[in-house]
User: Fold this.
Amino acid sequence: MTDIAPLRGQLIEEETLITLNELCGACTVRTEEIVTLVREGVLDPIDGPLRAEKAQAWRFHLTSCRRVRTVVRLQRDLGVNLAGAALALELLDRIEDLERRTE
Assistant:
């Protein structure tokens, strides 16, 4: 019988906040792309003014990573523009909400 190393990880709660730099690093996007997503209403920073020159003060929920990655995939793989990606995210959010309600 072989020894199997136990899996190790860190439990991260959805309410965990990350900085703009951490979000950019996790999603491999530039700061300007996140600023555009905030300006278009795709992402909502938790704190800090919404002005782009104050972007370094922004904090985001960890779930923002999923939203950014979804937008990037929609744009890259399907050629969806930002407005279309925002609509797709809104519909996905509604589906998720409905699924939670029916459980």
